[in-house]
Amino acid sequence: GEMLGMKLIYMDAGSGAKRAITESMIERVADSISVPLIVGGGIIEPEKAYLNCKAGADVIVVGNAIEKDASLIKEMAAAVHSVPVTA
User: Does residue 65 sit within a domain?
Assistant: First the structure.
């Protein structure tokens, strides 16, 4: 996508996915591109949000989990913001 002029890459396992995109896949894609990487689908726990960002996701998309339990918003935000920033 980046070589076609795309300004970002969006990896999505699908709304309400039973299996999310693996961290190893996120890491391989993130290491291969220089545009922002957005990852979504199957992220239902703060730990998964943390691991996705640590693997290289610049943005995560969480929908169904928060629709079911709005209190997850703060937990997801805290998890994402706890990822060490690397240059």
Answer: yes
